[in-house]
Design a protein that fits this description.
single chain; 322 residues; alpha/beta; seven-stranded mixed beta sheet; five-stranded mixed beta sheet; 10 helices; 14 strands; globular
């Protein structure tokens, strides 16, 4: 594939079944050539091959590969007084396609009534999570799909309507809001319903392990399993916690684990370290990111999220650990 043939690269993404090392190498060469921040960082490290840019760089630089005007600008939530990360997205349709392909990799491809309980994200605006759910609603949401702020009675009414109509329900929500919902009053969902929590207590509730959180949600919502989504403002791709208890990345997302102090020293499967993500869909920004999350990798590419680095700021992503 020619170095400048960006359109051919993007076409390959649409049919990708698993991370492709040839695409990783091409993307590294491409971004090193046209992303000045990534290039300078690699030069200072003396690195010829791929290195991960610390995620904090999104707070201080406009990370672009090439020169273009963004169609979307995502900002992280953080807390008061923190500098938010900003992710400039050149192609809104690429973001929508990536999120849809990642979801349908693991879950059935059929219409659902999508109900989103994401109050803090809606209030803040410029949320990648809200944009992703909007794209889902446009693509496979049934009539009656929508966002809820704090009007839980409307949410309960919509669930009842879906049950009467025999419609499958997808309830997606931030952890603290889902807990508030079920502690106010249990709300058994109709058969076949899916619950997807996005993590993050954000200082509003006591922190729980994921196991404790999911046990409370299963009891309050009457579902056999609760799924989780692992994503970040700085990413285009997501991973999903499946019933085996591990996060499985979308085909455009490759995870590696490094030593906590030496980012270029990879840890073998089963050893805890820093999570690094190569996001093949993030072609226009920076695809090589060292997160502030701790995890461990399994031989099949799935991974655990075990918490945050001690020096990491609180964020609105999945912060709970097992």
């Amino acid at each position: 594939m020619d170095l400048m043939d960006l359109s051919a690269y993007l076409r390959r993404l649409d049919s990708l079944e698993a991370p492709d090392e040839a695409l990783v190498r091409w993307l590294w060469d491409y971004q090193r050539g046209c992303n000045p921040v990534l290039r300078e960082y690699a030069e200072r490290l003396g690195a010829e091959g791929p290195v991960s840019l610390p995620v904090a760089f999104f707070k201080h630089f406009s990370l672009q590969s090439g020169t273009w005007e963004p169609e979307l600008v995502f900002e992280s939530s953080g807390t008061t007084g923190q500098t938010p990360s900003r992710h400039l997205v050149r192609d809104a349709q690429l973001y929508a396609r990536t999120a849809l392909q990642g979801f349908f990799r693991f879950f059935p491809r059929h219409p659902r009534r999508i109900l989103a309980l994401l109050p803090s994200y809606l209030e803040r605006g410029q949320s990648s999570l809200v944009q992703m759910v909007k794209d889902w609603m446009d693509a496979f949401g049934l009539p009656g799909s929508g966002f809820c702020l704090y009007h839980t009675e409307l949410l309960r009414q919509s669930v009842a309507e879906a049950a009467d109509a025999g419609e499958p329900v997808l309830l997606i929500g931030v952890a603290y809001a889902l807990l508030d919902l079920v502690e106010e009053q249990a709300m058994p969902l109709p058969p076949g319903a899916m619950v997807l929590e996005t993590g993050g207590m954000k200082g509003r509730r006591e922190e729980l392990t994921r196991e404790e959180l999911h046990a409370r949600l299963r009891a309050g919502l009457g579902v056999p399993h609760v799924y989780s989504e692992y994503g970040m403002t700085e990413l285009m791709s997501q991973a999903y916690l499946l019933p085996d208890g591990r996060f499985h990345p979308a085909p455009t997302m490759q995870v590696r684990i490094s030593d906590i102090h030496l980012d270029r020293l990879d840890q073998p499967p089963g050893v805890t370290g820093r999570i690094h993500v190569t996001d093949l869909a993030n072609v226009h920004s920076c695809a090589f990111i060292a997160t502030d999350d701790l995890g461990r990798l399994y031989p099949d590419g799935s991974f655990d999220v075990l918490g945050r680095l001690d020096t990491a700021e609180l964020r609105g992503c999945n912060l709970m650990y097992v």
